């Protein structure tokens, strides 16, 4: 049986310790157990890792600790992905401020 593929962006990982959103935190922790147990093929991008790097040291360390508990594939951004993202922006589907989000969607 094939596993479902799941793309994680920074907000999903952040919800693992989002105490001001207890319901989302609880749901995300439950889902994370499935990731730890290998139920899904997990993917994240360099954009997500770059966003984690911008977090405070304590939050960054916490997020990396969570990531160390799971297996994931890092998606690389290449020239083709950047060109596709730019076309989506040029077509007006999303605004230029959403460029990183478009890159994430194009990678998947």
Structure description:
This protein is mainly α and 108 residues long. 56% of the residues lie in helices and 11% in strands. It is built from 6 helices and 3 strands; from the N terminus they run E-H-H-E-H-H-E-H-H. It has a 3-stranded parallel β-sheet. Helix 5 packs across helix 6 (99-107). The two termini are 21 Å apart. The model has no long low-confidence stretch (mean pLDDT 87).
Summed up, the helix count is 6
Cα(first) to Cα(last) distance is 21 Å
Averaged pLDDT, please?
A: 87
Class derived from helix and strand content? mainly alpha
Oligomeric state of shown chains? single chain
Query: What are the low-pLDDT stretches, counting only 5+ consecutive residues below 50?
Result: none
- Largest sheet, described in full? 3 strands, parallel
Number of strands: 3
Task: Write a compact overview of the structure shown.
With 108 residues, the chain is mainly α.
